[in-house]
C-alpha cells in the first residue's frame, strides 16, 4: 500500500491584514520542502461550516514563491464563525462537527489558521473538538494590534497599516493647513486604540482620542467627546492655527451611553461573530455635525470633513518589517506542527509568536481570558511613557491652559466666553487625565 504524504491545510479568517500572503508562502514552502502536501482552504470557515470539502486549491512552491510582496489573501477570507452554538439542534455544535468532517474529507492532518482573536478562538475550539486528530497552529494577525503577544510584540499587519495611515493623515494635514479646515479621521480598533494613536503620534496629528483614556466603570457621553474636540479646536484657534486633524479610534462608539448609542446604531448590521460593524456607525460624521453645531450657535462657521481610513489600510502591500516578520511566523507555524507530529504528547495547538528573535508558541488556553473564554485583549497602556509622550505633543485642553490667566483668556475669547465661565464649562476635561474623570460632560 502506498504511503500517503501528510497534508497541511492553510486558511484565513476575519478581516484582511498586510502580510497574510507572506505567511501562506512561508508555511507552504517549508511544508513542501519537508515532504508534505499543502492545500489552501478558500473563504475561511465559510464552506467548512456547511460540511463542504470542495472549496480548496492545491499549493505549490511556484504558486507562492512571490506572493509575499502582495497585499490581500490569495485564499480570500471571511468572518464565518464555527463556534456558534445552536441549542435547539440535535448537535448544538454542528458547525464544528461539519468543519471536522470536511477537513477529514480533504485528508488534512494539520491546519494553519491566520486571523485575529475570533479566529484564534475558533482554532482553539476546533483543536479541542478534534481530540488530537488535527494539529492546529494559529498565526495571529490584526491591524488592531490587540492580542497579548510576548514582549509587547506587535501583531503582523499593524506596522504596515500604521505606515499607510500616517501617509494618508500627513496628506490630510497638509490639506488642512492649506485650506484652513479640520478633518475628523476614524481609524480601526474595535477593542484597542493602538492604530489610531500610532498613526496620530507618527503623523503629528493635532490630537488622538482613544477608548483607553476613559474610565472603564462608566459609559461615555457623546457630549464629552464633542467637548474634547471643541476645546482642542478652540485652543488651536487661540494659537492662530484654525485647522488640524483629529484621529479617533472606532472603538469609542462602543463606550457610549445607551441613550447616545441609539443615535448611531440605527440600521447598523452585525457580523457573523455578533459584533457591530463599526465602519457603518459613522461616529466621525456625527461628531463633525455636532461640533459644527457648536460653532454655528456662536455665529461662526467651521469646515470639518469626516474620514474613515480603515479599509485603505488592510490590503496594502506589506512593508519589509511585516514581510520579514510573517516569514518567521509562517515558518514557525509549520515548524511547530512538525515538532508536535514527531514528538506526540497532549498539546494539540498553539498561537505562534516571536519573542526576542525566537519562536514562542503559546498553547491554546494560556492566552485566554477566564472571564470571557476568549483571547485576552491588549489595550493601550495609558500609564506608559510612550502614551505620555503622545499626549504631550497633542493640542488638547490641559491644566496649564486653565491655570495660566493669559492662556485661559485667549482660549475663552475664541469661544466667546468669559474666562471663569470657560473654566466652569470645560474644566472637567483636565481633571484626572487626558479625558477627564467625570461621568458626564455638561
CATH first level of the largest domain: which class? Alpha Beta
Number of strands: 13
How would you spell out the order of helices and strands?
EHEHEHHEHEHEHEHEHHEHHEEEEHHHH
The order of strands across the largest sheet is 3-2-1-4-5-10-13
Distance between the termini: 79 Å
Based on secondary structure, the structural category is alpha/beta
CATH fold category name of the largest domain: Rossmann fold
Q: Which percent range fits the helix content?
A: 40-55%
Instruction: Specify the biggest β-sheet.
Output: 7 strands, mixed
| Number of distinct helices | 16
Which architecture of the largest domain does the CATH hierarchy give at level 2? 3-Layer(aba) Sandwich
- Integer average pLDDT: 92
Q: Can you tell me the residue ranges where pLDDT is under 50 for at least 5 consecutive residues?
A: 437-442
Provide the domain count.
Answer: 2
Q: Compute the CA-based radius of gyration.
A: 24 Å
Proportion of strand residues: 5-15%
What does this structure look like?
By secondary structure, the protein is α/β, with parallel strands linked by helices. The protein has two domains: 7-155 and 318-363, Rossmann fold (3-Layer(aba) Sandwich); 161-314 and 381-394, 3-Layer(aba) Sandwich (Rossmann fold). Helices cover 40% and strands 12% of the residues. It has helices at residues 20-33, 46-49, 61-64, 94-105, 117-130, 158-179, 194-203, 222-238, 258-264, 283-297, 311-314, 320-343, 385-392, 399-403, 405-414, 419-426; strands spanning 7-12, 37-41, 56-58, 110-115, 135-140, 182-187, 207-209, 244-249, 304-308, 349-351, 354-355, 358-359, 362-363. The strands form three sheets. A seven-stranded mixed beta sheet has the order 3-2-1-4-5-10-13, sandwiched between helices. Strands 7-8-6-9 form a four-stranded parallel beta sheet, with helices on both faces. Strands 11-12 form a two-stranded antiparallel sheet. Strand 4, helix 5 and strand 5 form a beta-alpha-beta unit. Helix 6 (158-179) packs across helix 7, helix 8 packs across helix 10 and helix 15 (405-414) crosses helix 16.
Amino acid at each position: 500500500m502506498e504511503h500517503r504524504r501528510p497534508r497541511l491545510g492553510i486558511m484565513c479568517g476575519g478581516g484582511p491584514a498586510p502580510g497574510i500572503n507572506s505567511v501562506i508562502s512561508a508555511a507552504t514552502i517549508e511544508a513542501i520542502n519537508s515532504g508534505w502536501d499543502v492545500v489552501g482552504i478558500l473563504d475561511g470557515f465559510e464552506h467548512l461550516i456547511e460540511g463542504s470539502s470542495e472549496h480548496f486549491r492545491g499549493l505549490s512552491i511556484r504558486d507562492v514563491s512571490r506572493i509575499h510582496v502582495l497585499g490581500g489573501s490569495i485564499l480570500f477570507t471571511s468572518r464565518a464563525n464555527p463556534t456558534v452554538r445552536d441549542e435547539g439542534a440535535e448537535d448544538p455544535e454542528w458547525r464544528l462537527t461539519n468543519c471536522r468532517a470536511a477537513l477529514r474529507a480533504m485528508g488534512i492532518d494539520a491546519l494553519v489558521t491566520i486571523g485575529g482573536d475570533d479566529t484564534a478562538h475558533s482554532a482553539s475550539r476546533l483543536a479541542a473538538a478534534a481530540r488530537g486528530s488535527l494539529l492546529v497552529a494559529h498565526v495571529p494577525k490584526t491591524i488592531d494590534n490587540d492580542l497579548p503577544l510576548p514582549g509587547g510584540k506587535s501583531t503582523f499587519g499593524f506596522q504596515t497599516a500604521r505606515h499607510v495611515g500616517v501617509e494618508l493623515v500627513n496628506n490630510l494635514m497638509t490639506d488642512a493647513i492649506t485650506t484652513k479646515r479640520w478633518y475628523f479621521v476614524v481609524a480601526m480598533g474595535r477593542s484597542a486604540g493602538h492604530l489610531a494613536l500610532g498613526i496620530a503620534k507618527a503623523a503629528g496629528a493635532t490630537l488622538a482620542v482613544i477608548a483607553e483614556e476613559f474610565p472603564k466603570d462608566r459609559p461615555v457621553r457623546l457630549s464629552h467627546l464633542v467637548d474634547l474636540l471643541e476645546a482642542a479646536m478652540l485652543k488651536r484657534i487661540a494659537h492662530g492655527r484654525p485647522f488640524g486633524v483629529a484621529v479617533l479610534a472606532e472603538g469609542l462608539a462602543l463606550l457610549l451611553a445607551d441613550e447616545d448609542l441609539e443615535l448611531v446604531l440605527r440600521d447598523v448590521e452585525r457580523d457573523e461573530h455578533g459584533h457591530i460593524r463599526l465602519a457603518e456607525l459613522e461616529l466621525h460624521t456625527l461628531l463633525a455635525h455636532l461640533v459644527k453645531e457648536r460653532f454655528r450657535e456662536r455665529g461662526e462657521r467651521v469646515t470639518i470633513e469626516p474620514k474613515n481610513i480603515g479599509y485603505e489600510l488592510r490590503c496594502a502591500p506589506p512593508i519589509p518589517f511585516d514581510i520579514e516578520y510573517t516569514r518567521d511566523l509562517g515558518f514557525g507555524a509549520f515548524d511547530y506542527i512538525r515538532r508536535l507530529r514527531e514528538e506526540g504528547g497532549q498539546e494539540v495547538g498553539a498561537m505562534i509568536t516571536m519573542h526576542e528573535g525566537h519562536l514562542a508558541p503559546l498553547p491554546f488556553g494560556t492566552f485566554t481570558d477566564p472571564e470571557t473564554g476568549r483571547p485576552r485583549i491588549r489595550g493601550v497602556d495609558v500609564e506608559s511613557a510612550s502614551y505620555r509622550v503622545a499626549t504631550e505633543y497633542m493640542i488638547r485642553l490641559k491644566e496649564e491652559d486653565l491655570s495660566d490667566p493669559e492662556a485661559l483668556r485667549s482660549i475663552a475669547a475664541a469661544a466667546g466666553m468669559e474666562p471663569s465661565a470657560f473654566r466652569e464649562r470645560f474644566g472637567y476635561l483636565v481633571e484626572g487625565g487626558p479625558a477627564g474623570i467625570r461621568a458626564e460632560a455638561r
